[in-house]
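Hi R.,

Here's the chain you asked about this morning:
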Amino acid sequence: MSLSSLLSIVSLALSTFSVITSVVLLSRQTTFIRQSNHLPVSVDLAREFRSDDFLEAQNYVVNTLKTEHSPDAGVSELPLEARKAIDKVTSYFTGLGAMVAQGILDEPFATNFMGYRANLIWIALEPYILRERSLRNDSDYLIFYEDLICRIRENWPPSAGRFDLRSLQR
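And the predicted structure, written out as tokens:
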């Protein structure tokens, strides 16, 4: 093998290595940029999730709504205060669900961080939501929230082996 052939092979190998390295670095950079975009959204979502208004609305929906109002009214026919509480929590989870469905927000983050309460609220609201869909003749009413619940239930609990979670009890 001549020196020029050997140099050509070495040059080709180095070029191939450079291309592969560039692709790997580009992939990592893209992942990093995507995750860095999640941070501001995640902080805002967490802030709202822990706000007094949201917690009060959640408490009302989970603990009081069914004792005061029948699901027969759906959502739109409920008194203003009940509608406001429902709108507070459903608009939050609908927005969260839309961001997850569109790939703007990481699904494991949303489902694991907020899944328990999202599901708890859905359980309380499901008869109201289904009745509202019937009243409106709109099967897509709160569809992104429902999609989020499906994702949560498919991946619950977080300790089901997808993560290396530690526990003091196991």
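The longest helix spans residues 3-49.

Let me know if you need anything else.
M.
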